[in-house]
Amino acid sequence: MELFRPDQIQNGLLLRNLAYNPLSVPLACDGGLRLSVACPFCRPDRDRVLHDDSLVFVLRDGFPVSPGHVLVIPHRHVGSFFETTPEERRAILESLELAKESVVQAHRPDGWTIGINDGAAAGQTVSHLHVHLIPRYDGDRPDPRGGVRWVLPEKADYWTKP
User: Fold this and answer.
1) For the segment 50-63, what is each residue's pLDDT rounded down to a tens digit?
2) Between the chain's N and C termini, which has fewer beta carbons within 10 Å?
């Protein structure tokens, strides 16, 4: 199989070319792109890519917590939101809006949780920035009040405390 040739079907079998880059940015460690070979977001499964531009892409979450859960991810391998450029931040927000429109058409959610786990102490398990867009549905939790505050359960319920 040639290096930059997409997947092929031969004798009824799908042959994956893992070197093929479905995204619009070259997979190389030059030009400040800082890609990681071991990072799942530097080499995403292109069947899960919903949107792609020169700075970010939208990926269906591999372990969705609700129908329509997607991630917005910069192409550049950067661990923290605070390491992104202003252009990357703009592209992230624009792609969140595009992803939202797509999820609304497919799933009709009743609300949204938008989140970033930035750093190991915050629960980040893949050290490549990714923004979660999690559709929420009436009844998916008995009492959804507090939302993201439940990452620290003892401090989440502020509305019943004096």
Assistant:
1) 999 999 999 999 99
2) C
